[in-house]
Amino acid sequence: xxxxxxxxxxxxCLDVQPGQTVLIEAEPSALPLLEALHPAVLQRGAFPIxxxxxxxxxxxxxxxxxEWLDQVPPAQMQLVEHVDASLRIxxxxxxLELSDVPPARxxxxxxxxxxxxxxxxxxxxxxxxxxxxGYAQQAGMPTAGFRAFVEQALYLxxxxxxxxxxxxxxxxxxxTQRLQKVKEIRIQGDRTDLRLLVEGRxxxxxxxxxxxxxxxxxxxxxxxxxxxxxCFNLPVVVSGQRVGGARLRFQGGRVVEARxxxxxxxxxxxxEADPGARYLGEVGIGTNFGISRPTGLILYDEKIGGTVHLxxxxxxxxxxxxxxxxxxxxxxxxLRQGGRILADGVVLQExxxxxxx
Length: 357
Hints:
- By secondary structure, this protein is of the alpha+beta class.
- It has helices at 2-13, 31-42, 59-64, 74-82, 103-112, 114-121, 133-139, 143-153, 161-179, 264-271, 298-301; strands at 21-26, 47-52, 85-90, 124-129, 184-189, 192-197, 204-206, 211-212, 216-219, 227-231, 236-238, 241-243, 247-251, 254-259, 280-286, 307-313, 328-334, 339-343, 346-350, 353-354.
- Helix 1 packs across helix 2 (31-42) and helix 7 (133-139) crosses helix 8.
- The model has no long low-confidence stretch (mean pLDDT 94).
């Protein structure tokens, strides 16, 4: 698996070119993939720089980092300024390692390191996940079963993974063309009825170049447009914090009421990170039917075919979104067991199945 995974990342996701420098951030759990990535990048004429335990996922950093929560070390900033591309590999042995870190410290880090994250995002980048036993446990699967699940989600179980991703890209291109003409998106489901205006915004075809796995189309809704209520039915783990049953009510685009069945303290703290944290930066529609079940991992669950996700906080500039925040946090609604998405009043998706595509 690792050799095919590394080839997909180097060739398709990052499109590594001769003479480039590629920053790879991971934890030691991803060593088997790093051992395959090192020659894959070198064979394409580029130079890999591998960093273990990047600060944002390190428990000691939050416990003892002190002033470094508020600022980026100059050497780290200089490094990201001089690389051509970056790859972040989520590879935690224990996804809940940060569960006892005060949410205020995580919010502090997200604000202090925002210049670094913004600079990294201006260059070619990709985010992926290596299947560790910890992630398998979180997903409720045996380790071998989770590895097989990941292979299927990445299309590594197919004869030509790159061709499979290009086929999904073509389907999503058709979907984005349809959505580009839409003025209003309405999401309906259990305890959910939310309207968003998207006129004039650009829909993006997320086909594996930034996230692997991918499989979504997304845009930035007009910041003042969200009206109604949404109840997210898939739990997520973010920065080691588990949040389930999150329920948000919007008025004039702003979250005016927030609750959660679990992780409510973290939810409320993130909403107070800055003024932009209470506004939406993204609405996305999942299209990857190779991901068959939820795992609690945002990177995977937001791509499930038949789901929709909303991100609090920072917009992606290429969508035309203008919201600014130190957070970008996706919350996911599964519509496969009852729910629909309407585009200007016409059903686009019902019970997880696209209509007319």
